[in-house]
Amino acid sequence: MDYATRRAARLTGRAPRVDKHEGHECAVDGCSRTCRAMSRYCLRHASAFYRTRNPTGRLPRVQEINPYRDRAAYALDVYGLGEHPAIVAAEQTLERMIASPGAVPERYAKHWRRLNEGGATGRGMLLNILAVYGLRYVGVRDVFTDDAVHFTCLGSRWLRTVPLGWYRTSGGKLEQVRLPGLLAEEVGRALASKIGGLAILFWNRVEQIDAERAAEAMTIREALERNPL
Ligand SMILES: [Zn+2]
What is the predicted pLDDT for the residue at 110? Predict the structure, then answer.
């Protein structure tokens, strides 16, 4: 029996052995681990790629994003930006989107329904979007390794406006539902095309107002220094 026949007999009708090492070196610079079969990355970098869409990517923690969420909420309420027609329209668009999934593929539609049934508001969803843009365009932009990681984070934060929930494993253990990076990235790109431009203009305006306020405070302080009360 020749090699091809023996190999075919061994493989036919079986699941591919994706856990078997192929022997190549991982495609990430400086990583010399062996590739997972059918992948250009080793196990560690393949799993980072699965979650973040970049083999060396990292999704920012909620604690890193939250300050920008608070700052956006403050600007919407106190600076009156929440009444701007474009902000109102964006909130309505998001609410309409999750209320009627229409012909959206089921892998997204099930999340739209989850958000809608979980009581996600237009303001809540918009704040999660603005927060990610704040971290990127006002805060530490290098937190995002590249655009793919940014979109993945955007989709992920928005989809978590209502918690993803839990599922029971075959062993009976309760585990948090995982969110594949690819799904988050696709959702993030869709959100960016709808709301991204507005989010960038929003932060530009917030920075402008903050600068004006800081300048006013400085003028008062300087006047006091010249002529103490
Ligand atoms: Zn690697």
Answer: 92
